[in-house]
Amino acid sequence: MSILILAEHHDRQLAGATAHVAAAAQEIKEILGGDIDVLVAGENVSVVAEAAAKLDGVAKVRVADNAVYAHQLAEPMGALLAELAGDYSHVLGAASTTGKNVLPRVAALKDVSQISEILDVVDADTFKRPIYAGNAIATVKSSDPLKVITVRSTGFDAVGEEGSAAIESVETVVENSQSTFAKQALAQNDRPELSAAKVVISGGRGMGSGENFKLLEGIADKLGAAIGASRAAVDAGFVLNDMQVGQTGKIVAPELYIAVGISGAIQHLAGMKDSKVIVAINKDEEAPIFQVADYGLVADLFEALPVLQSALSK
Amino acid sequence: MKILVAVKRVVDANVKVRVNGDNTGVELANVKMAMNPFCEIAVEEAVRLKEKGVASEVVAVTIGPKAAQEQLRTALALGADRAIHIQTEEHVESLVVAKLLATVVEAEQPGLTILGKQAIDTDNNQTGQMLAALTGMAQGTFASEVKVDNDKVAVTREIDGGLQTIELILPAVITTDLRLNEPRYAKLPDIMKAKKKPLDVKWPTDLGVAVQSKLTLLKVESPAERKGGIKVGSVDELVDKLKNEAKVI
Ligand SMILES: Cc1cc2nc3c(=O)[nH]c(=O)nc-3n(C[C@H](O)[C@H](O)[C@H](O)COP(=O)(O)OP(=O)(O)OC[C@H]3O[C@@H](n4cnc5c(N)ncnc54)[C@H](O)[C@@H]3O)c2cc1C
């Protein structure tokens, strides 16, 4: 049997997460055989389909290009995937807000369980996934004929992009009279995507204001870093929700993570503790963040950050 | 309009959980339990909609062990009018929870069903979406704003890139994100009053749903521990370490 991947895309661009999902699919395929297909659903998505066709290991890209799939609303996406799922043993998507919105629907429509945020493929039906904010790792085995799975990107290295899969269109068009897209407010910046960046610098409540996040920007520019935040910083309105790192925000595992004015609550650690090197800058030497930091600097961030920026300019 | 709000009993968010000795789960003996934080937000939203006159009745429901009645009483103290307890001592996976909730939706016909987006024990983030699929309702997940307007609801959702607003035809399912509201604390007189509010107990078999798991939990392990690092004395020392020791910049 074969594997179907739901492509993650935004603004007519294939998102990096899809190549990580493909890596998880590849591991299942090595055990099970069969093909890996990718579904690109949306409106005017031919460019996305071309990018998906380059992913290593993909046999076929199936494109459902129709206005009903614009903005990938859950109801039509769920119905489409449930219809296509009959040809597959596994349906995989990214553990993104799109994957999490759509895949549980698909599972329920097919009367099977859904397995969230897998980190590891043990076998074609057995997977590891974090529970309790990553304080425990569960190994779960599914007895369902169809496995519907979301994949945590940090658990799998992205596949290469040397492939040339066939592209074919999917004619299935479902009805949707229940939900309509009204508007969106997306963050605009030129920095790398938070969940894919090699370096992330995050600010917490200690930053004191949104204005003060500028202190991180100069450093992020020097390091080519993405900027993240704790929940407290988002709740306080310093920055937008798309920057939240943690159990209920984004999961990151960069080469270097710099936590500034962040205490290190369990829920924040859940989103960044798999980073290769962690640096913490905090004025409280007892802050729990220091227990996971490779390099801790006990200092007032308002003094340390300008010095750091100029040290990086040398 | 009636609002159904689902709540779950979980290990309190402030507890540092530990894997148990035989790797079958986490240590639960003498651990503080509480209502899942996202469910508190769901209850709060339902109660606010009632206070605004949008909703006429708020019904809280939980699926879980006998002790989960504590969380139902909390929901009643926070302003729910009555409660339904679907009692089972077994582990119930999301799909079965959704099937049980679907029977309650069928019986109660709520205009809105509000759930937390995820429970902080299993971190699944599935039940609301599954319930919507099973009942044929539209869904507004990860909500940070909810506005009911006649037969429609506008839901602003926290998505990876920022915020998205969608409109759903009622009845609909909503799952809450952290910034939807700040839940109130129950006041003592309300806690006393809650003891007298109706709480109906049902069993999964009454509802014709088999509590069976299609996922088997084989093992639970602790994640790899990070080794504690060092404290550096200055920014210059930090930059030197990052360049020459860790080699990450
Ligand atoms: C269900 C649930 C889900 C959650 N999900 C998330 C999540 O996804 N992500 C997340 O981050 N949190 C999450 N939280 C919240 C989490 O529990 C913490 O409340 C939050 O992470 C705290 O953010 P903080 O470290 O910025 O703030 P605080 O804990 O207030 O810490 C601020 C730190 O800044 C330091 N500081 C202050 N001023 C300075 C200065 N001038 N110089 C240097 N240091 C300074 C202080 O010493 C302190 O350590 C969640 C909580 C719950 C209950």
Q: How is this structure best summarized?
A:
By secondary structure, chain A is α/β, with parallel strands linked by helices. Chain A has helices spanning 17-32, 46-53, 74-84, 97-109, 214-223, 231-235, 266-269, 301-313; strands at residues 2-6, 9-10, 13-14, 36-42, 60-65, 88-94, 114-118, 120-123, 126-131, 136-142, 147-151, 166-169, 179-186, 199-203, 226-229, 256-260, 277-282, 295-298. In chain A, the strands form four sheets. A seven-stranded parallel beta sheet of chain A has the order 7-11-6-1-4-5-12, sandwiched between helices. Chain A has a five-stranded parallel beta sheet with strand order 15-14-16-17-18. In chain A, strands 8-9-10 form a three-stranded antiparallel beta sheet.
Explain this structure to me?
The complex is a heterodimer of chains A (314) and B (249). Chain A has 314 residues and is an alpha/beta fold. Chain A has two domains: 2-169, Rossmann fold (3-Layer(aba) Sandwich); 194-313, Rossmann fold (3-Layer(aba) Sandwich), CATH 3.40.50. Chain A has helices at 17-32, 46-53, 74-84, 97-109, 214-223, 231-235, 266-269, 301-313, and strands at residues 2-6, 9-10, 13-14, 36-42, 60-65, 88-94, 114-118, 120-123, 126-131, 136-142, 147-151, 166-169, 179-186, 199-203, 226-229, 256-260, 277-282, 295-298. In chain A, the strands form four sheets. Chain A has a seven-stranded parallel β-sheet with strand order 7-11-6-1-4-5-12, with helices on both faces. In chain A, strands 15-14-16-17-18 form a five-stranded parallel β-sheet. A three-stranded antiparallel β-sheet of chain A has the order 8-9-10. Chain A is globular. With 249 residues, chain B is α/β, with parallel strands linked by helices. Chain B has a single domain (2-224), classed as HUPs (Rossmann fold), CATH 3.40.50.620. Chain B has helices at 37-51, 69-78, 94-108, 127-135, 188-194, 235-245, and strands spanning 2-7, 9-11, 33-35, 57-64, 82-87, 112-116, 138-149, 152-159, 162-169, 172-176, 199-202, 215-221, 230-232. In chain B, the strands form two sheets. In chain B, strands 9-8-7-10-6-1-4-5-11 form a nine-stranded mixed β-sheet, with helices on both faces. A two-stranded antiparallel sheet of chain B has the order 2-3. The longest helix of chain B has 15 residues, at 37-51. Chains A and B meet through helix 3, helix 4, strand 7, strand 9 and strand 10 of A and helix 3, helix 4, strand 7, strand 8 and strand 9 of B. The structure holds flavin-adenine dinucleotide. Flavin-adenine dinucleotide (FAD) sits between chains A (204-206, 230-233, 244-249, 261-263, 265, 267-268, 271, 282-284, 287, 300-302) and B (13, 37, 120). Chain B: Heterodimer of an alpha and a beta subunit. Chain B: Pfam families: ETF (PF01012).
